[in-house]
């Protein structure tokens, strides 16, 4: 029972983190009217996830995540904050990739510390640290990059899209001949390195 509660709590936290990072990368400025809309949107998205959990279960909800989370977030950024579909999509996809960093740290903590809660505690702490780091040092560079040209925006969002596809294959939503012949988890881990390779040059400018 407690494990289920922790998983649901983690899912809610990563939802908030992902939306917050998406808004950062889309260059959304926090104003009073915008903050109210964002708060309402948070509540709406969490409600949708809870409804999906109760109706379909956790596993199917994870498979449906792009449809019940990513697409609504992209649409929200486009319609409410007047960003282009390309910028909004690239921002959400890159934010999805950023969500993997706390997961890496949590996995390392679980391997090093013999405690069943080590993964979850490290995951939450890492998420707070990563968000601060992204907001202070990375977000402005990402905003400038995605606004520079359509080509740079496409390149910036292409690899996260591929990683998301591999992740969906990993969950069994899309089984392809290529995925069956390759080790999906290996491709997934390798592609996650794109995040570091794309962020570091921006920090060095």
| Distinct helical segment count | 10
Radius of gyration: 17 Å
Low-pLDDT residue spans: 173-190, 199-205
Average pLDDT over all residues? 79
Shape label: globular
Residues in β-strands, percent:
under 5%
Relative helix content = over 70%
Indicate the structural class.
Answer: mainly alpha
> How many strands, which pairing sense, and closed or not: the largest β-sheet?
none
Instruction: Give the beta-strand count.
Output: 0
Instruction: Tell me the domain tally.
Output: 1
From N to C, what is the helix and strand string? Answer: HHHHHHHHHH
Measured between the Cα atoms of the first and last residue, the distance is: 48 Å
Lay out the secondary structure:
Blueprint: H1 2-25, H2 32-56, H3 58-63, H4 65-81, H5 85-98, H6 100-112, H7 118-148, H8 150-171, H9 177-181, H10 184-204
Helix pairs in contact: 1-2, 1-5, 1-7, 2-4, 4-5, 5-8, 6-7, 7-8, 8-10
């Amino acid at each position: 029972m407690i494990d289920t509660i922790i998983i649901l709590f983690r899912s809610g936290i990563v939802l908030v983190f992902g939306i917050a990072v998406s808004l950062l990368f889309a260059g959304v400025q926090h104003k009073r009217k915008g903050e109210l809309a964002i708060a309402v949107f948070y509540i709406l998205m969490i409600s949708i996830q809870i409804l999906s959990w109760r109706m379909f279960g956790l596993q199917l909800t994870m498979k449906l995540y792009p449809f019940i989370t990513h697409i609504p977030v992209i649409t929200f950024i486009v319609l409410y904050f007047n960003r282009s579909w390309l910028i909004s999509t690239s921002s959400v996809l890159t934010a999805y990739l950023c969500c993997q960093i706390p997961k890496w740290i949590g996995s390392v903590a679980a391997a090093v510390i013999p405690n069943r809660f080590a993964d979850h505690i490290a995951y939450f702490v890492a998420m707070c640290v990563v968000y601060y780091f992204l907001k202070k040092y990375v977000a402005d560079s990402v905003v400038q990059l995605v606004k520079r040209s359509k080509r740079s925006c496409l390149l910036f969002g292409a690899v996260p899209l591929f990683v998301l596809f591999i992740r969906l294959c990993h969950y069994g939503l899309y089984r392809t001949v290529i995925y069956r012949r390759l080790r999906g988890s290996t491709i997934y881990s390798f592609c996650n390195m794109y995040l570091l390779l794309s962020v570091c040059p921006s920090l060095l400018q």
